[in-house]
Amino acid sequence: MKFLLDANVEYRLATFLTSLKHDVKTIAHDYPHSLPDQDVLALAVQERRILLTNDRDFGDLIFHQHHQHYGVILFRLKNTKDIQVKMNWLQTVLQTYSARIHEYRYHSPRYENTQNHRETCSITPISLFAYIGS
Q1: Strands, E assignment, 1-134
Q2: Which of 45, 86, 100, 105 is close enough to 123 for a disulfide, judged by CB 3.0 to 4.6 Å?
Q3: What's the CA gap between 73 and 112, in Å, rounded?
Q4: Is residue 86 within 8 Å of 100, Cβ to Cβ?
Q5: What tens digit of pLDDT does each residue of 72-123 get?
Protein backbone atom coordinates (compact mmCIF):
# COMPACT_ATOMS: atom_id res chain seq x y z
CA MET A 1 0.00 0.00 0.00
CA LYS A 2 1.01 3.60 -0.48
CA PHE A 3 0.81 6.08 2.40
CA LEU A 4 1.25 9.80 2.88
CA LEU A 5 1.90 10.85 6.46
CA ASP A 6 0.72 14.30 7.43
CA ALA A 7 3.19 16.65 9.12
CA ASN A 8 1.60 15.96 12.52
CA VAL A 9 2.27 12.21 12.42
CA GLU A 10 5.38 10.84 14.10
CA TYR A 11 8.10 9.93 11.63
CA ARG A 12 8.63 6.63 13.46
CA LEU A 13 5.32 5.47 11.98
CA ALA A 14 6.80 6.03 8.50
CA THR A 15 9.73 3.84 9.45
CA PHE A 16 7.33 1.23 10.81
CA LEU A 17 5.22 1.20 7.62
CA THR A 18 8.35 1.02 5.47
CA SER A 19 9.51 -2.01 7.47
CA LEU A 20 6.22 -3.67 6.49
CA LYS A 21 7.13 -3.06 2.81
CA HIS A 22 4.70 -0.18 2.26
CA ASP A 23 5.54 2.78 0.03
CA VAL A 24 5.63 5.79 2.37
CA LYS A 25 6.10 9.53 1.90
CA THR A 26 5.83 12.18 4.59
CA ILE A 27 4.78 15.81 4.32
CA ALA A 28 7.52 16.80 6.78
CA HIS A 29 10.35 15.25 4.74
CA ASP A 30 9.21 14.94 1.12
CA TYR A 31 7.19 18.10 0.40
CA PRO A 32 7.29 21.86 1.07
CA HIS A 33 6.42 22.77 4.65
CA SER A 34 3.13 24.36 5.69
CA LEU A 35 0.97 22.91 2.94
CA PRO A 36 -2.74 23.63 3.49
CA ASP A 37 -4.87 20.59 4.29
CA GLN A 38 -6.60 20.79 0.89
CA ASP A 39 -3.21 20.53 -0.84
CA VAL A 40 -2.16 17.59 1.34
CA LEU A 41 -5.40 15.79 0.47
CA ALA A 42 -4.95 16.59 -3.23
CA LEU A 43 -1.39 15.18 -3.14
CA ALA A 44 -2.64 11.99 -1.56
CA VAL A 45 -5.28 11.61 -4.28
CA GLN A 46 -2.85 12.46 -7.09
CA GLU A 47 -0.34 9.89 -5.85
CA ARG A 48 -3.01 7.37 -4.83
CA ARG A 49 -1.86 7.32 -1.21
CA ILE A 50 -3.80 6.71 1.98
CA LEU A 51 -3.37 9.74 4.20
CA LEU A 52 -2.44 9.13 7.83
CA THR A 53 -3.14 12.16 10.01
CA ASN A 54 -3.93 13.40 13.51
CA ASP A 55 -5.93 16.32 12.11
CA ARG A 56 -9.74 16.12 12.35
CA ASP A 57 -10.07 18.88 9.75
CA PHE A 58 -9.70 16.24 7.02
CA GLY A 59 -13.03 14.78 8.10
CA ASP A 60 -14.64 18.15 7.44
CA LEU A 61 -12.96 18.41 4.04
CA ILE A 62 -14.20 14.95 3.05
CA PHE A 63 -17.64 14.69 4.62
CA HIS A 64 -18.86 18.29 4.56
CA GLN A 65 -16.96 19.86 1.67
CA HIS A 66 -16.95 16.61 -0.37
CA HIS A 67 -13.27 16.68 -1.29
CA GLN A 68 -12.05 13.59 -3.08
CA HIS A 69 -9.73 11.26 -1.17
CA TYR A 70 -7.96 7.98 -1.68
CA GLY A 71 -8.33 6.94 1.95
CA VAL A 72 -7.66 8.59 5.28
CA ILE A 73 -6.72 7.12 8.63
CA LEU A 74 -7.43 9.61 11.40
CA PHE A 75 -5.07 8.68 14.21
CA ARG A 76 -6.17 10.19 17.54
CA LEU A 77 -5.07 8.21 20.56
CA LYS A 78 -5.55 10.26 23.68
CA ASN A 79 -3.34 9.85 26.72
CA THR A 80 -0.64 7.88 24.96
CA LYS A 81 2.65 8.88 23.46
CA ASP A 82 3.77 5.25 23.35
CA ILE A 83 4.83 4.55 19.77
CA GLN A 84 4.33 0.81 20.22
CA VAL A 85 0.65 1.34 21.05
CA LYS A 86 0.27 3.45 17.90
CA MET A 87 2.04 0.87 15.76
CA ASN A 88 -0.15 -1.91 17.16
CA TRP A 89 -3.36 0.01 16.38
CA LEU A 90 -2.16 0.85 12.89
CA GLN A 91 -1.17 -2.74 12.20
CA THR A 92 -4.57 -3.94 13.43
CA VAL A 93 -6.39 -1.62 11.02
CA LEU A 94 -4.16 -2.66 8.13
CA GLN A 95 -4.49 -6.37 8.85
CA THR A 96 -8.23 -6.15 9.33
CA TYR A 97 -9.05 -4.02 6.31
CA SER A 98 -6.20 -4.30 3.79
CA ALA A 99 -8.04 -6.78 1.58
CA ARG A 100 -11.17 -4.61 1.58
CA ILE A 101 -9.65 -1.16 1.95
CA HIS A 102 -11.57 0.31 -0.96
CA GLU A 103 -14.94 -0.97 0.25
CA TYR A 104 -15.14 1.57 3.05
CA ARG A 105 -15.91 5.24 3.05
CA TYR A 106 -15.80 5.48 6.83
CA HIS A 107 -14.99 3.08 9.62
CA SER A 108 -14.95 3.60 13.33
CA PRO A 109 -14.48 0.65 15.69
CA ARG A 110 -16.65 2.53 18.14
CA TYR A 111 -19.71 2.21 15.86
CA GLU A 112 -19.05 -1.12 14.18
CA ASN A 113 -21.79 -2.99 16.01
CA THR A 114 -24.50 -0.36 15.75
CA GLN A 115 -27.53 -0.72 13.49
CA ASN A 116 -26.70 2.34 11.39
CA HIS A 117 -23.03 1.45 10.87
CA ARG A 118 -23.78 -0.04 7.46
CA GLU A 119 -26.16 2.76 6.53
CA THR A 120 -23.77 5.52 7.56
CA CYS A 121 -20.43 3.98 6.81
CA SER A 122 -20.62 2.12 3.54
CA ILE A 123 -21.93 4.97 1.45
CA THR A 124 -19.89 4.04 -1.61
CA PRO A 125 -17.21 1.44 -2.30
CA ILE A 126 -14.51 4.07 -2.75
CA SER A 127 -12.03 4.10 0.08
CA LEU A 128 -11.23 3.99 3.74
CA PHE A 129 -11.67 6.68 6.33
CA ALA A 130 -10.63 5.02 9.58
CA TYR A 131 -10.72 6.60 12.99
CA ILE A 132 -8.23 5.24 15.50
CA GLY A 133 -8.96 6.88 18.81
CA SER A 134 -9.97 6.55 22.36
Answers
A1: 2-5, 23-26, 50-53, 72-76, 129-133
A2: 105
A3: 16
A4: no
A5: 888 777 667 788 888 988 888 888 877 666 555 443 344 344 343 332 332 2
pTM for the model? 0.76
Q: Which domain holds residue 105?
A: 2-133
Helices and strands, counts by H and E, the chain: 6, 5
Structural domains counted in the chain = 1
**8-state DSSP, 3:** E
Cα–Cα distance between 66 and 57 in angstroms, integer? 12
CB 50 within 8 A of CB 72: yes
> Which residues contact residue 93 at a Cβ distance below 8 angstroms, ignoring those fewer than 6 apart?
73, 130, 132
Total residue count of the chain as it appears in this document: 134
Q: For 40-67, b where at least 16 C-beta lie within 10 A, e where not — what string? A: bbebbbeeebbbbbbbeebeebbeeeee
